[in-house]
Amino acid sequence: MSERAEPGELEVAVAAARAAGQYIRSRWGSPLSISYKGAVDLVSEVDTAAERIVVEALASRFPRDGIVAEEGSERQGQSGRRWFVDPLDGTTNFLHGHPHFSVSIGLVDDDGPLVAVVYAPVFGWTFCAERGRGATLDGRPLAVSAVKQLGQGLLATGFPYDRWTNPDNNVHRVAHLLRRCQGIRRAGSAALDLAYVAAGWLDGYWEDRLKPWDLAAGVLLVREAGGVVTGLRGEVVAFPDRAVTASNGILHQELVRVLEEAPALTVG
What we know:
Blueprint: H1 9-27, E1 34-36, E2 42-44, H2 45-61, E3 66-69, E4 74-75, E5 82-89, H3 91-95, E6 102-109, E7 112-120, E8 125-130, E9 134-137, E10 140-141, E11 154-157, H4 171-178, E12 183-185, H5 190-199, E13 204-207, H6 212-224, E14 228-230, E15 244-247, H7 252-261
Parallel strand pairs: 3-5, 11-12, 11-13
Antiparallel strand pairs: 1-2, 3-4, 5-6, 6-7, 7-8, 8-9, 9-10, 13-15, 14-15
Helix pairs in contact: 1-2, 5-6
């Protein structure tokens, strides 16, 4: 049975995200130790330290919940609920001095995302949502845009970490959509892209080969702001954990259709 968040869950998540974000902000622009998880997948000591801040806060307050975090922190839990944590979504931006990065925390149960917090440390923005209670930005209610046609829509997307080796790297979809919308942005933080759809600053977003911690918070933000989130091909899912299409809902079918129309890449 679907349940609302217990009192204190959102507050704890907000406090944890802000604490991690303040630490990240303090290290922004300072010399760092960097390693590679893949050819273009970076990680630094800031990611792991920020994750520790969030995980310790959640584990101490909700010891029965599971936790899955990007840099390896994991606990099974007994409640059937899991916190998905991306301690620094947009690491590449952060390491290059680009301000577009965030802390993303989402609580998920059997019915999908339940609590969401996305905190942007440089901008000081806190996006929040609870299932059935709406979404907010710094306490102000959020609502998706009213754009009705894809040709008038501002979209966002991202590219997978294996884009150097995998021919399905989203380039063909971007090329196809560029001629059919007002513009496409690639900013480097899936959590913030989804938050921007919720705020009405973007009209649609799609991306493939994401991780659950990229999506747990952002999916709920969009839905609670009145938008629609599905799989990449428009399939209805409680919690997409790999591919996602999000929009204001009005142009969702058109966005999905045009994405499917993108000509496949010819390999070889």
